Backbone:
């Protein structure tokens, strides 16, 4: 079974609008971490934001915020005031366990297109 | 520059051949992870090394092998190559097993392998 599910293969959003990228996850662990990565067309993987399973507040990093709904096992990424440079592939990922060394599992990604 | 160096950046080879991908982790990082990203797919975890020892294995084919050397650089060996092995291969590194894990891995820029 897939551990990370991203149901939106692609999205088109008008510049300056907010966008929500969906992510659901599956784990029986109580301790885990959730990540979002951005992959622009150049190919590199860029870390955006992290949410720990015990964190009570939703994580925020600049224009990025993570809408964490633990009971629903949902970890959606919200990008406020989208910019043309936000056009990229976005991956949701999970690390089971709190050990920094544990492997991270990635979803299949959502390709985001920002329209001028 | 993320600090993780992967060489070569591009590789074109014929079916049946063997190639070696190289990764130098970020200074101070002891763990190295290898991922495969095929077309329109998320990142598939292949294998992890920590300080020279294999720590975790994912869906790595028997035709693939890896090692981490005393200087902590790692090599991923792909043999009897098939067309389906064409992909972007990422190396990532982290400090190792620590609690305090809010940062994801640091990724290299990847090696794009094309098998013809």
Residues:
């Amino acid at each position: 079974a897939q551990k990370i599910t991203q149901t939106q293969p692609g999205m088109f959003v008008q510049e300056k609008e907010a966008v929500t990228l969906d992510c659901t996850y599956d784990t029986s662990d109580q301790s885990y971490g959730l990540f979002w990565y951005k992959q622009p067309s150049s190919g590199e993987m860029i870390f955006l934001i992290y949410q720990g399973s015990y964190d009570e507040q939703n994580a925020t990093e600049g224009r990025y915020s993570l809408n964490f709904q633990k009971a629903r096992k949902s970890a959606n990424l919200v990008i406020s005031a989208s910019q043309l440079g936000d056009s990229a592939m976005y991956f949701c990922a999970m690390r089971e366990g709190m050990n920094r060394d544990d492997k991270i599992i990635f979803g299949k990604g959502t390709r985001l297109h920002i329209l001028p | 520059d993320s600090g993780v160096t992967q060489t070569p950046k591009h590789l074109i080879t014929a079916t049946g051949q063997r190639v070696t991908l190289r990764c130098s982790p970020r200074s101070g990082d002891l763990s190295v992870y290898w991922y495969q990203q095929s077309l329109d797919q998320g990142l598939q975890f292949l294998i992890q090394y920590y300080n020279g020892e294999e720590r975790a294995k994912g869906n790595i084919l028997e035709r693939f092998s890896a090692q981490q050397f005393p200087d902590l650089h790692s090599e991923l060996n792909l043999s009897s190559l098939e067309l389906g092995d064409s992909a972007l291969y990422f190396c990532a590194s982290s400090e190792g097993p620590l609690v305090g894990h809010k940062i994801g891995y640091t990724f290299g820029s990847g090696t794009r392998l094309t098998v013809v």
Observations:
- The radius of gyration of chain A is 14 Å.
- Chain A touches chain B at residues 4, 33, 35, 37, 43-45, 47, 50, 52, 91, 93, 95, 98-109 (CB under 8 Å).
